[in-house]
């Protein structure tokens, strides 16, 4: 598998000076400017926070020059939106280099500040959808539009050369009254002079006021003016806000947030609104000692989009030269049920850690295989033996990482087992026979009574084989010399029950699913994390299949729902109970 870790690699380095900051600024906008792709959202949020920090090190003129370089093509709406809230010179350069689709412009333009929309009006290569959206928002060029030409009174002659020459204001003592165009229903003049001999400027002002007043009166009822975008979705129909980034000052008050959320949360004091009284001392100590905030519960009140329970994660930031505390930067995220939130957060952290660990292990395995296979030239046998051992250890470590990732995804509900049809009884019989040949040199055995019954499950053949082997091989690895373990197989009331007597090495464990019992050697192994982890993973797989794995006294009981004849060859949509676990 290949991972695009360019963004993580850039964020791993710190810019020590302005020159390094400019280089990293270029790298980040180059990576973020690509088309939106699937990836770690927290990593992308960290990239935007790094851009903010770099912006404090680079002058506005330099940033504007960087963004205005001819090589950029920003195709990510999120980056364009972020640039739209930057300084005017930077925003103008970024919006000139933005290349989005018509649909993306339609969604983005209403979210841009009014100043940024004005920059877009000067572009002549925008899609039609973007131009239409700007028109609907009332974004026009800087010049005033030309006035409508109205028909003058009977005494005015527009075609004559004299009529085109304006009269001096001092001589305009008797202004011609306006007459409505034939399209209107009124025949009377718009206004009469306020006095018999008004001054030229006064007469001109009165004519303008009369024109504007009567133009408003003749507006048809069906064309009544409305606010821009009044026909679009109302704020109540907006997509629910799931998270947003923020920053605070040194006192803990929010002084920056994402543009669409900033007016709702600016000035909020994090130290005063957390909703867990038992954590008040911890929060106060974190603020005093400038420590990170983790899973801080917050309850917001105010606008409908932010009202509710939130969880805050934030990290302190300091000036680079003096090291002075500047405040916190972090993210608000919607709070969910306590258990679900804890499990999901732990699973996300574990999977991110595994992603970081796989890269060096893959590299070690690759170099070891190069040496062992002599791809670059002859290698002494001693070095080849060491390389083969390193490659084997790397493979076992990667297998352990895969098991950790599978457990995290199963317990957080992010992974479903592949559906299909498999005879679990036939699989168990075959695997017990294979294990008997391994146990016989130790004078150990399985006392199994399976019979000839079938036990069809709504699982793919490979998934059923992995589940059976994980359970049976873990038990076989824990069996001591000369020990016999009983296995019983029952099919009743649409349920399969496989009962296995616990070996002596597992009976003493208080929690069989967390014991660290490991086998000292041999051909069977419970994995690098021990028997407890393997059984816990087997329990997670069983629950994902709609069953359960539990300890009952000195027995381990596996129960799974059987596939009835009417449900043969099910589809994922046909097994809602099984899919829900």
TrEMBL record:
CDD domains: HisKA (cd00082). Residues 177-199 are annotated as: Disordered. Its EC number is 2.7.13.3. It comes from the Bacteria. It catalyses: ATP + protein L-histidine = ADP + protein N-phospho-L-histidine. Residues 345-413 form the Signal transduction histidine kinase dimerisation/phosphoacceptor domain. Coiled coil: none annotated. GO terms for molecular function: phosphorelay sensor kinase activity. Keywords: Kinase, Transferase. This is histidine kinase. It comes from Qipengyuania marisflavi.
């Amino acid at each position: 598998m290949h991972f695009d870790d360019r963004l993580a690699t850039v964020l791993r380095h710190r810019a020590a000076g302005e020159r390094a900051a400019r280089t990293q600024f270029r790298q980040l906008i180059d990576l973020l400017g690509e088309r939106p792709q699937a990836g770690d959202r927290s990593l992308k949020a960290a990239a935007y926070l790094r851009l903010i920090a770099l912006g404090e090190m680079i002058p506005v003129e330099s940033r504007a020059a960087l963004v205005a370089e001819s090589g950029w093509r920003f195709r990510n709406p999120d980056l364009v939106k972020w640039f739209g809230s930057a300084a005017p010179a930077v925003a103008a350069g970024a919006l000139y280099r933005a290349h989005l689709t018509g649909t993306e412009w339609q969604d983005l333009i209403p979210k841009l500040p009014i100043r940024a929309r004005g920059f877009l009006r000067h572009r002549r290569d925008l899609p039609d959808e973007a131009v239409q959206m700007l028109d609907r928002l009332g974004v026009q060029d800087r010049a005033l539009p030309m006035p409508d030409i109205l028909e003058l009174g009977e005494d005015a002659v527009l075609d004559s050369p004299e009529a085109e020459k304006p009269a001096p204001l001092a001589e305009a003592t008797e202004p011609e009254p306006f007459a409505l165009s034939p399209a209107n229903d009124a025949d009377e003049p718009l206004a009469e002079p306020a006095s018999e001999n008004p001054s030229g400027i006064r007469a001109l002002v009165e004519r303008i006021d009369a024109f504007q007043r009567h133009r408003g009166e003749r507006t048809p009822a069906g064309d009544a003016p409305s606010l821009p975008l009044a026909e679009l979705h109302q704020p109540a129909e907006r997509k629910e806000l799931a998270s947003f980034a923020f920053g605070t000052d040194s006192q803990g008050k929010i002084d920056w947030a994402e543009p669409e959320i900033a007016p709702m949360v600016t000035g909020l004091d994090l130290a005063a609104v957390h909703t867990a009284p038992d954590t008040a001392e911890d929060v106060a100590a974190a603020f005093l000692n400038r420590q990170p905030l983790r899973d801080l519960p917050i309850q917001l009140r105010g606008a409908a989009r932010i009202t509710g329970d939130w969880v805050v994660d934030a990290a302190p930031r300091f000036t680079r030269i003096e090291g002075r505390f500047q405040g916190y930067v972090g993210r608000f995220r919607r709070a969910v049920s306590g258990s679900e939130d804890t499990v999901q957060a732990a699973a996300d952290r574990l999977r991110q850690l595994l992603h970081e660990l796989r890269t060096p292990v893959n590299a070690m395995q690759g170099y070891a295989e190069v040496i062992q296979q002599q791809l670059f030239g002859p290698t002494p046998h001693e070095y080849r033996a060491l390389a083969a051992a390193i490659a084997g250890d790397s493979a076992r470590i990667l297998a352990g990482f895969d098991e950790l990732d599978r457990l995290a995804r199963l317990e957080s509900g992010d992974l479903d087992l592949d559906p299909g049809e498999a005879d679990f009884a036939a699989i168990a019989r075959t695997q017990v026979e294979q294990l008997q040949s391994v146990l016989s040199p130790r004078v150990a055995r399985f006392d199994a009574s399976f019979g000839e019954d079938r036990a069809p499950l709504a699982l793919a053949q490979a998934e059923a084989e992995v589940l059976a082997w994980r359970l049976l091989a873990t038990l076989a690895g824990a069996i001591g010399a000369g020990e016999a373990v009983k296995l019983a197989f029952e099919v009743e009331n649409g349920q399969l029950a496989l009962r296995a007597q616990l070996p002596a090495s597992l009976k003493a464990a208080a929690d069989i699913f967390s014991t660290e019992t490991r086998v000292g050697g041999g051909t069977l192994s419970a994995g690098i994390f021990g028997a407890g982890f393997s059984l816990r993973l087997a329990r997670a797989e069983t629950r994902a299949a709609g069953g359960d794995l539990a300890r009952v006294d000195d027995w381990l009981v596996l129960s799974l729902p059987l596939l009835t004849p009417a449900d043969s060859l099910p589809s994922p949509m046909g097994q809602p109970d099984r899919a829900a676990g």
